[in-house]
Amino acid sequence: MRFRSKIVDVSCLNHFTRVINTITKLTKTCTLRLTSSNLYFILTDKVANGGVSMWCELSQGNFFDEYQMEGVCVEQNEIFLELIPENLSRALKTAQNSKSVKIKLTNKHCPCLTVALELPSLSSSSRIVTHDIPVSVIPRRLWNDFKEPSVPEFDVSIYLPALKTMKNVVERMKNLSNFIVIEANRNGEMNLKIETDLVSVSTHFKDLGNPPWVSDDASQNSTQEKDTMAEARIDIRKLLQFLAGQQVNPTKAICNIVHKRMVHFILLHEDVSLQYFIPALA
Q1: How far is CA 224 from CA 150, 151, 187, 189, 221, in A?
Q2: Which residue, 94, 126, 146, sits at the end of a domain?
Q3: Looking at residue 119, what is its pLDDT?
Q4: Nearest to 101 by CA among 91, 111, 87
Q5: CATH number at residue 231
Q6: 231/31 Cα distance (integer angstroms)
Q7: CA-wise closest residue to 61 among 1, 12, 116, 118
Q8: Which of 6, 65, 134, 262 shows its CA 20 to 30 Å from the CA of 96?
């Protein structure tokens, strides 16, 4: 089992750092799945028990100048590691002026992801700064626990408003309640609502648009059905954590709502996709 990679391009390094920073804001620990073509950062808290789930997929060819890996066996050329993403984020913070960053799997008293930074110096030779990040190797028998989360058939899919705007709205609402209702329809309308015994507050967004994968059958439904709202009541802190931690700068941000069951967010960049699942509360 071997893994080594290298990033030289500054823009690729900065982009990779932003992705890791985003994941750090979303979870304390996660699973890193390495394949020959992709990297996956996975969080699989049981949605049924009120936990969130995350699935972040990166194409390695868009980030790394060099990338080599050998999995545990020929049949399944993959490696699964458990790590604390904040440790990787801290290591990358010192990499902003580096000539290159090497990341490899090592064994130093315990399995580690070793991040070696080549930093410029006044002399002809470069300085190498090394960070050893402890990881746990996940045995093959447990790999099935880290499959991509299945998405139930959603009732509404809608583009999100500017994430910064949405974050500012939710930040104000969090002082009023621990819960928020997200509702949307197939006419490109979305509402964020707080309802308590003392106050009722709502923010309305219009003309957001619906993704093209909304079925033809749905588009042929009556106007009344297109106006029908699907909704989910969720933990406002989990929503704010998602919005506040976002540094991926997506080209598209989408919200899928399974009525009274789940909210599924998708952030799409040309070389990154991040899915985030928040279960609905009764």
Answers
A1: 30, 26, 10, 13, 8
A2: 146
A3: 84
A4: 91
A5: 3.70.10.10
A6: 31
A7: 12
A8: 134
